[in-house]
Design goal:
The chain is 70% helix and 1% strand. It is built from 18 helices and 2 strands. Strand 1 and strand 2 form a beta hairpin. Helix 1 runs antiparallel to helix 5, helix 6 runs antiparallel to helix 15 and helix 12 packs across helix 13. The C terminus is likely disordered.
Length: 454
C-alpha cells in the first residue's frame, strides 16, 4: 500500500513537472535569447503591417504564395500581435511558446485516452520534453516560426478530433476547419488531406459517409490552395537527384528531431528505426482488428505517424535537390517531432501487449523497455546540448545586424544582409516603419537609402 502511494506521488510530481516546469523553462529561454528584430523572410510582412497601420489589411499579401507555402493565418497572427504595441519579435516568440503548450495539452488527452494508466506520467514527461526540444532553436527564436507552430497545432487538433470514438459528421467539419488552418499556414497541411481519410477508416472501416465528407472538403481546400499557385523555381530537383537523394532525405527528415546537427547518418538510421516500429505496430493493429479485439488505442498514433511520413515525402519532393543535410534543418524538427510522439506511444502499446503474453514475454519486455528508455534519454540529452550550442550560432548574426543598424547612420549592404537578404528592401522598410510610429523602429530613422556603390 505504501509503495503504491509512493508511485502515485511520483506520478503526480512527474505530471506537474511536465505540464508546468518544462513550459516555464522554455518560456524563460525564449525570453532570454530572442533578438527583438525581424529576421530574413519576416521582413516581407512590412507591407502588410504598414497597410494595417493605414487602416486596411492587404488580404492579397496575406494570402500570397511564399515559396511553396501560403502562410495566411500566421501572417494574420503576426499582424494582430503587431497591433499590441508595435512589431515585436519577442512578443511573437513568446506567443509561440503558448501555441506549443497547447500542443502539449492535446497530447495529454491522447496519452490519457490510449495508454496504460501507469505509463501516462512518464510518457507525458517525455512528450513535454520533446515538444520543447532545443533542436527547434531556429523556430523558437524566430517570429516566422509561427507558421510551423500554427500548422502543427492545427494538424494535431484535427487528428485528435478525427480519431475520437465514432466521430460524427460535426467532428469531421471541425477537423476540416482545423485542416484549413494548417494548410493555409504551411504546405505541410497538404498531408492532412489523405491522412484524414486514413484516420477515419482506421477508426471505423464502415464510415464511408464521413470519409466522403472529408474528401469533398479536402477537394475544396486544395482548389483554393492551388488557385494562382506557381511552381517554385528550381524545385523539385532534377530527376536524377530525386532518385538518389529522395529516400535518404525522407529518412533524415524523420530522424532529425533526435539526430539534428549530428550528421545525416544518425538521423537516417533513426528514420529507419521509426518506420520499423510503425510497420510492426500496423501489423499488430491489423491482427487485433482481424480477431475482433479492441485496437482503438493504436489509431491516433498511427494516424499521427502517417501525417509526418507524408510530410517527409512532400518535403523530399520539393527540397531533395538542396541536399540531404537540409532535411535536418531545425525548423523541420517541429513537424517531425510528432512522429516520435507516435513512435514512443506505439512502443508502449506493443510492450504492454507483450506483457500480457505470459512469463517468458515479461522477461523480454523489461530489458527491452530499459534499453529503449536509456537510448531515447541519451539521444535526447545529446540533441539538447547540440541545440543549446546552436543558440549563439543562430542569434549572433541577428545581433550584429541590429547593432549595425543602431550604431551606423548608413550601414553597408553587407551589414544589412545579416538581417535581410535584400538590403534595398530593408533600407525602405526601416524608415517606413519608424515613420508609421512603430516604437520598435523609431530610433532607426537615420537609416536611409544610399546611392553609394556597394
Amino acid at each position: 500500500m505504501q509503495a503504491s502511494r509512493r508511485t502515485s506521488i511520483l506520478g503526480l510530481v512527474t505530471i506537474v513537472v511536465a505540464a508546468g516546469v518544462v513550459p516555464a523553462l522554455a518560456f524563460a529561454l525564449v525570453y532570454r535569447y530572442t533578438v527583438d528584430v525581424p529576421y530574413i523572410d519576416e521582413w516581407t510582412f512590412t507591407r502588410l503591417i504598414l497597410g494595417a497601420d493605414r487602416g486596411h489589411i492587404l488580404w492579397a499579401d496575406a494570402f500570397a504564395q511564399r515559396n511553396e507555402h501560403r502562410i495566411f493565418f500566421p501572417a494574420l497572427l503576426i499582424l494582430g500581435l503587431s497591433r499590441l504595441g508595435g512589431w515585436s519579435e519577442l512578443r511573437e516568440t513568446l506567443f509561440d511558446v503558448g501555441l506549443v503548450t497547447l500542443d502539449l495539452a492535446i497530447l495529454w488527452r491522447m496519452i490519457v485516452s490510449t495508454l496504460p494508466a501507469r505509463t501516462v506520467p512518464y510518457v507525458f514527461l517525455g512528450a513535454s520534453l520533446l515538444t520543447f526540444s532545443l533542436v527547434q532553436v531556429e523556430t523558437l527564436l524566430w517570429g516566422m516560426g509561427s507558421e510551423w507552430f500554427v500548422a502543427n497545432l492545427s494538424a494535431l487538433f484535427a487528428l485528435y478530433v478525427l480519431t475520437l470514438r465514432a466521430p460524427s459528421a460535426s467532428n469531421v467539419v471541425v477537423a476540416l476547419g482545423a485542416s484549413a488552418v494548417s494548410l493555409f499556414s504551411l504546405s505541410a497541411g497538404l498531408s492532412l488531406l489523405p491522412v484524414g481519410v486514413l484516420a477515419l477508416l482506421l477508426r471505423d472501416p464502415s464510415g464511408w459517409r464521413r470519409a466522403s465528407l472529408w474528401v469533398a472538403g479536402s477537394i475544396v481546400m486544395l482548389a483554393i490552395f492551388l488557385r494562382g499557385f506557381n511552381a517554385h523555381p528550381g524545385f523539385p530537383g532534377r530527376a536524377g537527384e530525386l532518385a538518389t537523394m529522395f529516400p535518404q532525405y525522407v529518412l533524415a527528415f524523420l530522424g532529425g528531431p533526435l539526430g539534428t546537427r549530428n550528421g545525416t547518418q544518425p538521423a537516417e538510421f533513426l528514420g529507419m528505426f521509426s518506420l520499423a516500429v510503425i510497420a510492426i505496430a500496423a501489423i499488430r493493429f491489423g491482427a487485433l482488428r482481424a480477431r475482433g479485439r479492441s485496437a482503438e488505442a493504436y489509431v491516433p498514433w498511427l494516424a499521427l505517424c502517417a501525417f509526418v511520413v507524408c510530410d517527409a515525402l512532400l518535403a523530399a519532393y520539393g527540397r531533395a535537390g538542396l541536399g540531404i543535410v537540409q532535411a535536418t534543418s531545425s525548423r523541420y524538427a517541429t513537424m517531425a517531432t510528432d512522429l516520435w510522439f507516435g513512435v514512443i506511444a506505439l512502443l508502449v502499446l506493443l510492450l504492454a501487449d507483450a506483457w500480457k503474453a505470459g512469463r517468458f514475454a515479461v522477461r523480454l519486455v523489461v530489458p527491452a523497455a530499459a534499453v529503449l528508455v536509456c537510448g531515447f534519454a541519451y539521444l535526447f540529452v545529446r540533441a539538447q546540448f547540440t541545440g543549446f550550442r546552436y543558440i549563439a550560432e543562430f542569434t549572433s548574426p541577428i545581433q550584429r545586424g541590429m547593432l549595425a543598424v543602431h550604431d551606423f547612420p548608413d550601414p553597408t549592404d553587407e551589414q544589412l544582409s545579416l538581417l535581410c537578404p535584400c538590403p534595398a528592401y530593408l533600407r525602405w522598410s526601416l524608415p517606413a516603419l519608424a515613420a508609421a510610429g512603430d516604437p520598435q523602429f523609431e530610433e532607426l530613422v537615420p537609416v536611409r537609402s544610399s546611392s553609394r556603390a556597394k
